[in-house]
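Anyone able to model this chain together with heme C?
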Amino acid sequence: MNKVYQGVFVVFVLGLLACSYRLYPLPSQRDLNLMKDYSPMLPDSIELSQGSQLYAMKCGKCHYLYRPHQFREEVWRTQVQEMAARSHLDSAGRIAVLQYLLTIKKWEEWKKKN
Ligand code: HEC
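re: yes, here you go
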């Protein structure tokens, strides 16, 4: 019987870890400030983390979470627009997800150059 409880506990802890697991590291506020020279109009780190959580919660239900670098900006714009309806995302959520994806994409490009 003890083993059963242990099993339940392990599953519970793994579940907690899975929920709190953040998909990709987010840029620090310092990196975001530096990137503003390269690309103005970036979200701040709070908006970014909200976008990343929405993306992880809403966009991974039907397929794996596509990585930001996998699509060009125009493709992301149309895909997020289309997928927002399937994910029951309101317009604020849609903007947060798009901002998140495009910022990570820009951050990855920026890191390569700097
Ligand atoms: C209800 C299921 C569902 C949800 C939720 C969903 N998608 Fe999709 N997604 C699909 C399906 C099915 C496809 C396959 C192509 C199609 O039907 O348009 C797809 C395709 C895509 C593609 C294109 C992949 C390619 O290779 O061209 C992208 C990008 C994408 N989804 C992003 C998102 C994002 C971002 C979200 C969250 C806002 C999201 N999806 C939420 C079902 C979903």
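The mean pLDDT is 87.
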